[in-house]
Protein 1
Amino acid sequence: MTDERLETLAVGTAASLFFLAFHSTYYNFDGVACAVAVDLGNPRYLAHGNHLLYGLAGFAFDRAWRLFGYRGPALLVLQTLDSLLGGATVAAVWRLLARARARPLARIAACAGLALSQAFWLWSLEAQVYMLSALFLVLAATQALEPSPRPGRLGFWHAMACLGHVGAVMFWPASAYALWRSRAGRRGALACAGAWTLTLGAAYAAAGAFFVKPSGFADARVWLLGSAALKVDHSFTWYGGYSWSGLKDWAVMSSRIFSDSGLLGLGGLALAALGAWRSRRGHEVRTVLLWLAGYAVLFTSWQPSIMVYRVVDLPALWILTALGLSAAGPALLGAAAVFVAALGVFNWRAAIAPACDPARNAVYEDSLWIGGVTPDDAWIVSSGLYQVYAPYFAHRRPLNLRYFDRQPQALSARLDALAKAGEPVFVPSSVMAADPWSAQPLRAYGLTEAGRRGQTVLYRVMKGKPSGSRTKKLKTAAADKKGPNGIGSDLVSRPRAMSQTP
């Protein structure tokens, strides 16, 4: 094994072990939703149209664990997968910088800075799709930065990044520049485009034929649109648009991905800008800048204030920093080392430690409690995080308010149907506060307090007095519902609760 491979393996192992040392209980919506899909094993939900590969890879990773006796929740498996992906991405950045002839100290500073940046550190602990795309993007960039990139490999890695998340299509300006400056010519461009098209086409064709199996054009359209067709009528919706406020949000988030400390965030951007300026005559910096520019076109319009989307920007920014530090003197290298250390200390205290404290996740704690004070056949009126927390942590069926689209009459009709079937319905006070339109029909229908935990009141929704035999006695805490990792100990014991429709 060559020295480069040994170094890359060592860096990847160290970074992965670093991320695995933390257990996040932030439990973001998309991660829990993916864990629900993995636990159910329904391939239609695993092969998401916007990020085709992550759910299927997560399912395979989860089932591999179970071959060795693992019986816990898929959510922990997916969090582990993302920690390994985060470590692999740090290792890929190390390899890219080695091939770009960056100095060892500059590589160390950049890789440590990437691992300790707020967005990358936090989302390497959570189940989320973007870490997979980030890894493949760095591999594509490694090929793009070569003096003579191989068009087929460039197209393949770029396609894999798009299978990680479709937003990676915005890497095309960087790919096109790499082919142009290497004089790959028409044959090279066709080879790159062909590899990209064949990889994507084959993956989507296979997913459609064997997993999703759309019933027709309309069904296939909804699948491919993914997050852009979340409305009840599945109409295409672009969540954002170009505006000055969107540009401002993007600029603020460009700082926050380093740290919520304004000083440290601006410091990270300043280091990247300095690296770009010092290396401005090299093709490497131009390629990386086009990588950033392509994504900027997307993220200044599509939900520019969402941090996790910007995980794909961070490797590029730290690559620029390393390229600049490679020609720096001891003073600047020392300042960069101090900056990286400060970044780690601040982000641990301000972001990572709170994310690893389950008491900071009130909806999670309330969901465990709700599972302990409601009958097994209960429905929980849900919105926001409760849409996935109710089935996954409380093991109760969610009565999802978004399917009623602010139609009180439709909600009342559904409550009548459940009452006729003898199925109990409960609603947390926080759900009514978050969706005020629902409070009136719920109160008109009839609410009786069923329990209280801190600021959260749980109401039984029914006409007249609820039957005492239908409601469990209130437990003062949900600690007995937790397993050794702070997660409900029987998360996968009731898949029925995860599969119910509203």
Note: The first strand starts at residue 379 and ends at 382.
Protein 2
Amino acid sequence: MTFEEKLERLKEIVETLESPDTLELDASLTLFEEGVGLVRSCRELLEAAEVRVQNVSQEENGDTTAEFISENENGE
């Protein structure tokens, strides 16, 4: 499943859980668990993409870009 497909599935889960139609508790918990798993997976993909971007930036510009990214993440 691609990142975009996972996000789309997460949207579907949220819409289902927020809908006025009441799901059974078991079904709601199953959807919630699936959503949590998708969030974790998406976070891992984003972190991997961030590392790739930093690596490419370091190769192109030396360590100064990586330092700039780190400083911005820390609010400096």
Note: Helices lie at 3-18, 25-61, 63-73.
Protein 3
Amino acid sequence: MESLTDRITVDINVCNGKPTIRGKRITVQTILEFLSAGDTKAEILKQYPTLVSEDIDACLRFAADLMGHQFSFKAIP
């Protein structure tokens, strides 16, 4: 299995530090938004020809891993 760090990068100088795909100016968030809107991998790859299918898979794995983290919230009085 490929490491996410091979595909998903975070650089404060690229897209304001948002996670991007291989340092390109394509954010993980952008790809997830396309998928949640119902776009297929093929449609996304057509719009972003510099991406490959594994990049989209890495975005999904990144999001799933992020959801595995514990979150704590302060109660608002």
Note: The first helix runs from residue 28 to 36.
